[in-house]
């Protein structure tokens, strides 16, 4: 039985392939029109899929923990803590910000407390990762404001950079969610009674095409995909 995400992804891929097949047929017909003395003056038919609505009955079979063979394990807390210290020193050094010894001690104690709380959590959730990242960033910025030699003002670029880098590290602590295994084969769904216990997923898919555009005709590396 497939995972729900895999099943929906395959359906979306099939709909995309349907558009591909339609465009290939339009290209073939365009060549026929071009070679015909009368048709070459007429518009070439081309069909789009502006909206596709799917009504999918499924039966939830079970929740399956993520496989260790396909999902990398979450990093150790000590590894993330080391990366946070490295990022801190790198940012301070690049911006020539020097913390006083007392400010460094306060920052270290705050980070120790944050990581101790993560150690006692049974699972690091997205909320835990986001909150800890923000509190670590705030602790460093407060240390700069309170104990920077010469009372160095906080650069907005530093705030943004720390938020981005800290967030990247802390999000690694999240465990991947369980996969929802579903039954989708029509013959199997018919054997499930009553039908009211089936889960129905209704999707409306809107088409958004992109096309290749080359901004510099002499430079192939300038090709990029842009919305139609």
Would you tell me the overall average pLDDT? 87
Q: What is the N-to-C succession of helices and strands?
A: HEHHHHEHEEE
Strand content: 15-25%
> Which sequence of strands runs across the widest sheet?
2-1-3
- The radius of gyration over CA amounts to 28 Å
Number of helices: 6
Structure description:
It contains 6 helices and 5 strands. A 3-stranded antiparallel β-sheet has the order 2-1-3, covered by helices on one side. Helix 4 runs antiparallel to helix 5 (156-170). The mean pLDDT is 87. The protein has 228 residues and is α+β, with helices and mostly antiparallel strands. The protein starts with a helix and ends with a strand. The protein folds into 2 domains: 4-63 and 181-227, no CATH class; 77-173, no CATH class. The longest helix has 32 residues, at 4-35.
What's the short story on this structure?
The protein is of the alpha+beta class and 228 residues long. The chain is built from six helices and five strands; from the N terminus they run αβααααβαβββ.
Set down the secondary structure blueprint.
Layout: H1 4-35, E1 51-64, H2 77-94, H3 101-120, H4 126-147, H5 156-170, E2 179-183, H6 186-190, E3 199-206, E4 210-214, E5 223-227
Antiparallel strand pairs: 1-2, 1-3, 4-5
Give short descriptive properties of this protein.
two-stranded antiparallel ribbon, three-stranded antiparallel β-sheet, 228 residues, 16% strand, 6 helices
């Amino acid at each position: 039985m497939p995972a729900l995400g895999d099943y929906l992804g395959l359906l979306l891929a099939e709909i995309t392939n349907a558009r591909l097949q339609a465009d290939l047929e339009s290209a073939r017909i365009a060549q026929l029109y071009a070679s015909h003395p009368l048709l070459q003056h007429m518009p070439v038919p081309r069909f789009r899929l502006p909206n596709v609505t799917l009504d999918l009955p499924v039966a939830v079979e079970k929740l399956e923990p993520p496989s260790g063979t396909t999902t990398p394990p979450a990093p150790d807390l000590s590894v993330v803590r080391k990366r946070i210290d490295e990022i801190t020193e790198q940012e301070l050094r690049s911006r020539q910000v020097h913390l006083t010894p007392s400010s460094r001690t306060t920052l270290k104690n705050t980070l120790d407390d944050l990581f101790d709380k993560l150690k006692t959590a049974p699972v690091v959730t997205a909320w835990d990762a986001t909150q800890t990242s923000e509190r670590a960033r705030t602790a460093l910025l407060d240390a700069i404001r309170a104990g920077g030699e010469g009372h160095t003002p906080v650069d907005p670029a530093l705030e943004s950079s720390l938020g981005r880098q800290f967030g990247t590290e802390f999000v690694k602590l999240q465990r991947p969610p369980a996969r929802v295994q579903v039954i989708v084969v029509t013959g199997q769904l018919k054997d499930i009674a009553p039908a009211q216990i089936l889960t129905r997923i209704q999707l409306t898919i809107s088409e958004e095409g992109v096309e290749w555009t080359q901004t510099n005709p002499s430079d192939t590396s300038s090709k990029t995909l842009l919305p139609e």
